[in-house]
Amino acid sequence: MTLPDGKPHAHGDAEAANLHVCQDGPGDAPALLLIHGSASSTRSWDPLVPLLTGSHRVIRIDLLGHGRSAKPEDRGYTVPDQARRVGAALDRLGVGHAAVVGHSSGGAVATALAERRPGLVTALALIGTGPGMDASIAPQVAIEPSQWPHLTDEQLRLFAGSGFSRPGYEIPQEFLDDVRAMTFHTLTASMRGTLAYLRERPLPDRLAPLGTPLLVIFGEEDRRWRPSSAADYRAVPGARIEMLPGVGHSPMLEAPPLTAATLLDFTTTHAARTD
Question: What dihedral do alpha carbons 107, 126, 63, 165 form, nearest 10°?
Fold first, then answer.
């Protein structure tokens, strides 16, 4: 596990040791875990982190196969597999309770973590996370194995284009580099894992019996998931749904202050201090 000081930490769960972890904010503040989406990394949260550290110990993890984490070809990339690794990483950090935020497919991993470790997840916030496959509206952009990783920046922007909607927003180069740094196997296996998890059972059905406080944030201009599908989460008792005007699939990048204010209003109520 790589912490902010850049030094490796070799104790604990073997797979968790292969995950890149960033921590910001006071160590004794309530823990807030941020989980990125498909083909992304901890860097997708960069604009949001400074707005959250005043009241939280902010923890970010590159899921296996993403960012600066290991990219083995012989590991499972299902959503439950990723959730298990995230839980092990929090155990290694000594975090007994955390509010968990997931963006897009990271929201599926956050949901699986709440299913697997209900005592660990004190509250859950899903940002741009489709409730089920019937809510998907993103065009399919096919990538052939022979093309990988030699795609042009323009091809990668087309691949990731539905993730943003704000006029004039240009996908930063570092995000393109994160996608290109993945192997074809880790990219496609991770995406298949998310699709399988959503097809098996919609997220509201999974969350309804857990009793975990839930915030759902959707951009009204989301081009990956039908924005009106956010209403499906009303099946979860007490769920709070916030629709952000003029924002697309990635509110933390398109409108960081608004996203942070919405999150903090929720997390400061439900976050618990680290054990």
Answer: 100
Burial class (CB in 10 A: 0-12, 13-18, 19+), 144: exposed
Contact status, residue 71 vs residue 41, Cβ threshold 8 Å: no
When pLDDT is cut at 50, 70 and 90, the band that residue 13 belongs to is low
- The span from the first CA to the last CA of the chain, in angstroms, equals 20
Token output for 6: 């850049």
Question: Residue 265 has what DSSP assignment?
Answer: H
User: Which tens digits make up the pLDDT trace of 159-179?
Assistant: 777 777 766 677 888 888 888
The phi and psi torsions of 139 (rounded to 5 degrees) equal -65, 145
Mean pLDDT, the chain, rounded, equals 89
Q: What are the tokens at 184? A: 């074809």
Residues 6+ apart with CB under 8 A from 150: none
CA distance 101 to 98: 10
Instruction: Give the model's pLDDT for residue 167.
Output: 64
Scanning the structure block, which residue is given the tokens 């935020």?
A: 101
Residue 137, C-beta contacts closer than 8 angstroms, at least 6 positions apart:
223, 224, 225, 226
Question: What are the start-end ranges of the E strands in the chain?
Answer: 21-24, 31-35, 57-61, 98-103, 121-127, 214-219, 240-244
Q: Give the integer Cα–Cα distance in Å for 132 and 120.
A: 24
Residue recorded with tokens 């860097």: 43
Q: Closest by alpha carbon to 272, among 52, 100, 126?
A: 100
SS (H, E, C) 126-194: EECCCCCHHHECCCCCCCCHHHCCCCCHHHHHHHHHHHCCCCCCCCCHHHHHHHHHCCHHHHHHHHHHH
